């Protein structure tokens, strides 16, 4: 019989050996001819399946809404400083990306994990939030440096509006909103932030689309796919900030002494 040399790599998402590359079995020509968008390409390469249009549209909305949030946020700041130090595009981009994590943009997976666990266990918002407090963990997806009860995050409202009119159910989002109502009773800035909105709504997307088994949803949440949405989205803005600084021929950045508290 045939003797097959053992392979060192297993890959299941794309194949470039034929006449044209395929993403999850779908040839490039179909992707173009059938008018697929970037949301469809993400569903093929990340989720290995074609998702319904409202799901791919939701993915695209997440990408568009998270593409940038001005020059002052951690990621853009790092990118700007790096670009001004004369570094190249990739260095400036990754310098910004490296700030994405539990406090900034990278709380989506944890928000999905904690909201799912709490909602599936029927915890009241009080039980959930106070339980987290006892463990000394800030609720991922809650809180913002500049957004508050009276200055809500428009991105969150837009995502919720889209989901309310397009998703079959928004159970996890409603749970996150109840959690927000409780946290807002504690402090004005403890709003549901964009990470929390995407995390909870993606749970609704996964559960409501009928395209994923329970086991697959658990795996997606456990591996942590969802921070990828912010990483991908914000790369667009960080690349823009790099070009902006280069275009403006900005000099090396040095932080002013006056803005540092020198102390022992
Ligand atoms: N859950 C519970 N309590 C909170 C939370 C939270 N998520 N956030 C703030 N608090 C409370 C705490 O009592 C905190 O005191 P502590 O330092 O003793 O824990 C108090 O509010 C004051 O917090 P600050 O540090 O002033 O809040 P800050 O404005 O610096 O933090 C931040 C904003 C980092 C977003 C914070 O709310 C947080 O860690 N949230 C969870 C992570 C998260 O969702 N990040 C994504 C933000 S959206 C984005 O980056 C695109
Ligand atoms: C962002 O999207 O970068 C923000 O929500 C973070 C911020 O502090 O504005």
TrEMBL record:
It is found in: Cytoplasm, Cytosol. Keywords: Acyltransferase, ATP-binding, Cytoplasm, Lipid biosynthesis, Lipid metabolism, Magnesium, Metal-binding, Nucleotide-binding, Transferase. Its main location: cytoplasm. GO terms for molecular function: ATP binding; ATP citrate synthase activity; metal ion binding. GO terms for cellular component: cytosol. GO terms for biological process: acetyl-CoA biosynthetic process; fatty acid biosynthetic process. Heterooctamer of 4 alpha and 4 beta chains. Belongs to the succinate/malate CoA ligase alpha subunit family. This is ATP citrate synthase. It comes from Arabidopsis thaliana x Arabidopsis arenosa.
